[in-house]
Amino acid sequence: GLSQYSSDPRTEWDLSAYSTREQVLEAVRNLRYKGGNTLTGLALTHVLEQNLKPDAGARLEAEKLVILLTDGKSQDDANLAAQTLKNLGIEIFAIGVKNADEAELRQVASEPLELTVYNVLDFPLLSSLVGKLTRVLCTRIKERSHKEHTDTPVNTGSQLSPTDLKISAVTSKSMHLAWSPPLRPPKKYRVVYYPSKGGTPKEVVVEGAVSSVQLSNLTSHTEYLVSVIPVYGTAAGDGLRGVTSTLPLSSPRSLRVSELSHNSLRLSWKAAQGATHYLVLCSAAPDGAED
């Protein structure tokens, strides 16, 4: 599977899209470059939530590997998003080109770094990595596949996926999420949320017996993407997703001016709900404006 990113990640094809080597190579040849910013953290979250799920062809019992290819320093928190993947047993290989930040590559990649971090000066030099990277990837998959995953379920569908996400009690800085648990309770849920226009993903982890959570310290008047992902051992099931906007902050109303003198005036207004302070700004009106 392959996703390309700049400000917003874009899935080019899923794991289940092609079944032969030639089909994949043809898709690579037809790939169009996506220019823009470098929100690596958002891209890694996209891969977890969109590309590594059963609907996209990911098998829960299969080993999960992500290869990150980047030519710049991330403009958001790539380390936090990468740690989330690694905590779920997903191995990350980081390949830098040109202006990539090697310190960031080493933060994002899985251990051992001598096998998972690569850096080249220009794109044509990537060809020199293919042979070694192929051998390392295949060896890592074989090693990891030999480990027993006794806590990883092999059935999919409604037994592993929560349903019926409800978002309620939305305020300017909080919201409440609730969902119906799957037939087979997970060990825990990862609740990931971030502004739809880009931003650092944040997450809350709750135990599998819990089916609701309160999100706090949100930004007012902002659309948020939320995901509830069930976690079974080292594998993640198919998650629930939703979109909602926090309310705008309450504004003061009915501004009135009184007690005018040559160097003073009194202002009064109806209070803004929840406000703790007011900032009052005043300046001389521009020439020609009404006094």
From TrEMBL:
<dbReference type="InterPro" id="IPR036116">
    <property type="entry name" value="FN3_sf"/>
</dbReference>
<feature type="domain" description="Fibronectin type-III">
    <location>
        <begin position="161"/>
        <end position="250"/>
    </location>
</feature>
<dbReference type="Pfam" id="PF00041">
    <property type="entry name" value="fn3"/>
</dbReference>
<keyword id="KW-0272">Extracellular matrix</keyword>
<protein>
    <submittedName>
        <fullName>COKA1 protein</fullName>
    </submittedName>
</protein>
<dbReference type="InterPro" id="IPR050525">
    <property type="entry name" value="ECM_Assembly_Org"/>
</dbReference>
<dbReference type="Pfam" id="PF00092">
    <property type="entry name" value="VWA"/>
</dbReference>
<dbReference type="InterPro" id="IPR036465">
    <property type="entry name" value="vWFA_dom_sf"/>
</dbReference>
<keyword id="KW-0964">Secreted</keyword>
<dbReference type="InterPro" id="IPR003961">
    <property type="entry name" value="FN3_dom"/>
</dbReference>
<feature type="domain" description="VWFA">
    <location>
        <begin position="1"/>
        <end position="133"/>
    </location>
</feature>
<dbReference type="InterPro" id="IPR013783">
    <property type="entry name" value="Ig-like_fold"/>
</dbReference>
<dbReference type="InterPro" id="IPR002035">
    <property type="entry name" value="VWF_A"/>
</dbReference>
